[in-house]
Amino acid sequence: MSRSRVSRPPTIIDVATRAGVSKSLVSMVMRDDPGVSDVRRSAVLAAAAELGYRPNRAAAILAGTRTRTIGVVVDDFRNPWYVPMLDGVREALAPHGLRLTLADTLANAHLGSSPFDDLVSLRVDGVVLAAEGFTDLVVPADTPVVVAGERAEVPGGLDVVASDEAAGGRLAATHLVDLGHRRIAHVTGSGGPAAVRRAATVTRLAESGIPALVYGAGPTSEQTGYEGTRRALEDHPDLTAVFAANDVMAMGAIAAVREAGLRVPEDVSVIGNDETPLASSPLLRLTTVDPHNDEVGRLAAARLVELIGAPHRPAPTRTLVPPSLVVRSTTAPPRA
Questions:
Q1: Burial group, residue 262, by CB count within 10 angstroms (0-12, 13-18, 19+)
Q2: Which homologous superfamily is 69-163+293-324 in?
């Protein structure tokens, strides 16, 4: 009676034998060492592909080699603003064969664990930090970090790539003013982007002689958008427009408007910010400000790749991406 044989996975020695090179040279190829010639690199990669060899990432980490992985930290998976940003990050990493691993600030909050420290412990080659709350961040000398998005406080010495949030706030306010609205509420919340949008909105409305009706406190969530808009409508029954600090808050704002027996946009116009996948949904068709977070992600990741390959850490830079207005069906001139 014959016994079934379980084939073992190929090893680095198998690859070396197939390619006719040493084990150490295979190791150099797998960690993308620049000291390997193109001919030998091609031979090793071809042998690895033929055998179905996959490098042992855990062994690479223990050996202190590069993991060819970039970590990304976001605030909260419940707010989809980060979806376009991740598309841009992937676009920038793909030509370099770098993989992406994602963490959010809430996933392991019950353990008191920092997502940044968790990523560093995995020996990622660099981190895109797209979240708040890292003012006391300790960045290892061998781990480049680029901040994506406007943040309330940025640890010193870090590069920043963000949308021009002040320009975005002005775009939204100007759109409503140009439509003829004069009773406008801005529903906002905590965080760096919201603070910059709020300041720009208040300034732009003041330039047109319009009082700033600012509502909302706490996280920039759908519930905050709902509660802020509900209170604004109670305090100002003649309200004709709402600028919500992001698209998720705009959903809450629309719910509050409809709950009050009013229509969007016939009675109250609503505009959001972030151009998330929600905004373009045929069910919502939300007018919003597009901060071009895909471009923010692409530029942040491209800068991170530069820093990973730099022999010396260059002076930090700050890059702002111009936003644009996307007009859909939730804004219109005020009722007569």
A1: middle
A2: Response regulator (3.40.50.2300)
Contact partners, residue 148, CB within 8 Å, separation at least 6: 85, 128, 129, 130, 161, 162, 296, 297, 300
Q: Where are the domains of the chain?
A: 12-62, 69-163+293-324, 165-290
CA distances, 65 to each of 14, 111, 329 (Å): 21, 29, 52
Give the start-end residues of each E strand in the chain.
Answer: 69-74, 99-104, 126-130, 145-148, 159-163, 184-187, 213-215, 241-244, 269-273, 287-290, 318-321, 324-326
CATH homologous superfamily, domain 12-62: lambda repressor-like DNA-binding domains (1.10.260.40)
Q: How far apart are the first and last CA of the chain?
A: 91
Within 8 A by CB and 6+ apart from 309, the residues are none
* AA identity, residue 317: T
Task: Tally helices (H) and strands (E) across the chain.
Answer: 11, 12
**Architecture of the 165-290 domain:** 3-Layer(aba) Sandwich (3.40)
Look at residue 174 and tell me whether its pLDDT is greater than 80: yes
Q: Write the CB contacts of 191 (distance below 8 Å, at least 6 apart in sequence).
A: 75, 132, 152, 219, 220
User: Has residue 327 got a pLDDT over 50?
Assistant: yes
For strands 324-326 and 287-290, give the pairing.
antiparallel
pLDDT tens sequence across 3-32? 434 456 788 888 889 999 887 678 778 767
Residues 6 or more apart whose CB falls under 8 angstroms from that of 249 comprise 187, 188, 189, 216, 220, 221, 222, 224, 225, 228, 272
